[in-house]
Amino acid sequence: MQQILFPKVEGENSAARRSSSGRTLGDCVIRRSDNLKFMAQLETGAFKLIVTSPPYNIGKSYERRSSLDAYIESQAAVVDEAIRLLHPRGSICWQVGNHVDGGEVFPLDVALYPLFKRRGLKLRNRIVWHFEHGLHCSKRLSGRHETILWFTKGDDYAFNLDAVRVPSKYPHKKHFKGPNAGKLSGNPLGKNPGDVWMIPNVKSNHCEKTGHPCQFPVELIERLVLALTERGEMVLDPYMGVGSAVIAAMMHGRVGYGCDVVQEYVDIAHDRVRQLRTGTLRTRPMDRPIYDPRLPGGGQR
Fold it and tell me: Contact 179/257 with Cβ under 8 angstroms?
């Protein structure tokens, strides 16, 4: 495991630990801090994955609403620091939705893309995260997706497809003709998950729900952690919220770093880390089918 170059969470040590279930967990560093101050103390090029969901500038309780231009300017400073901290073979994943002003929708991925492109990063995927629950709009179609912009510094970057394959729709399909006739046509490990991800968002009946109004589902970040990092490598979330990205990193033996300016959310993140250590933290498994009330048993395993 790489050396941690920042003061650790009170009561934690830097060695990887095991949960009560026996799974080897990664360490974590979480702080209540302004993200630029937090990031300024971290080592250049140390992070294999920087994954976050910044505020959308829509007036939530944890953000101060500003003009869209001012919002983009504030994001530029954080993006600059993220690029400094990113490993040469690392990835930045910026997850955003829409800014809404006067009933007009401004897609933040479109607004923020130039910040990364002007700094030389290359977009690998625009991942669409689809979910089925949210506010019901009366003057436009209800929003049911957000996006993840996945950038790298160059063409030599880490990508572990086998770690995130999903079950094939037709696992026993075989080649009909040619030199491989009769052999399985698909990868035995499953198929590429593609760039549209159907993952439930965290609403009131979700097992991960805390007091945060816009919480990451852990499984969304797990897929990014597994695909873009290796065990022992470092993952940073500069808008940590209640620590879902840190939890996802720790669950798979990575070192999770995160900060937030809201003490309540930092306290919840600390508590979730403790629950993970003791094996009592509830998270939605990555391989669980999405609940469908029209199917027997809801389609759950």
Answer: no
